[in-house]
Amino acid sequence: MKKAFYLCFILLFLVACSPTIPKDAFVLSPTSLEDRQLQSRKFATLDRTVLLAAGAAVLQDMGYAIDESNASLGVLTASKQADATSGAQIAGAVLVALIGGGSMPIDKEQKIRICLVVNENLSDSESSIARITFQRIVWNTQGQISRVETLKEPELYQGFFEKLSKSAFLEAHQI
């Protein structure tokens, strides 16, 4: 009886500890190519330091705090806190409270995270590719994460790359 108990315990332990990878873990989304094109731009320089310094300046001008930067790897991360309240959510919470008397959590604050990566362009040895992603984490009034998402607004990326292009030119020419 004791042996059967130990055997069941060991089998249960082994099953519980086995790593399970979802079947679609390495499947690209149908929009992954479009997303990459939106998030990437080509620059006519191989100097990562110039692009990262220009990117840091642009992000700081946009209100972001630089979290980490590594020029040898070509990576820069930044973030900022922002208000996430929505008038529609507040109206819905008030309506739920009036009808049912309960409280409904609403979005309260968000953290927007940026990751800028600069690599040598594999198809053109005289240029670099800069890729940036904007992501946000939203917390509700109960302190729980209500959303984690990648922002995909084209205006956001276009605006950043326009500013980065100007800043990189100024940085490269030490203006």
What does this 3D model show about the protein?
By secondary structure, this protein is of the alpha+beta class. It has a single domain, classed as Kinase associated domain 1, KA1 (TATA-Binding Protein, 2-Layer Sandwich). 41% of the residues lie in helices and 30% in strands. It is built from five helices and six strands, in the order H-H-E-H-E-E-H-E-E-E-H. The protein has helices at 2-17, 32-39, 48-61, 87-100, 154-172; strands spanning 40-43, 65-70, 75-83, 107-120, 128-140, 145-150. The model has no long low-confidence stretch (mean pLDDT 83).
CATH class: Alpha Beta
| CATH topology call | TATA-Binding Protein
CATH superfamily: Kinase associated domain 1, KA1
Secondary structure tally: strands: 6
What share of residues are in beta strands?
Answer: 25-35%
Q: Helicity, in percent?
A: 40-55%
Written as H for each helix and E for each strand, in order along the chain, the element string is: HHEHEEHEEEH
The number of helices is 5
What is the CATH-assigned architecture? 2-Layer Sandwich
Q: What integer value in Å does the Rg equal?
A: 23 Å
Inertia-based shape: extended
- What is the average of the pLDDT values? 83
Q: What structural class is derived from the secondary structure elements?
A: alpha+beta
Distance between the amino and carboxyl termini: 82 Å
Number of structural domains: 1
Low-confidence stretches: none
Biggest sheet architecture: 6 strands, antiparallel
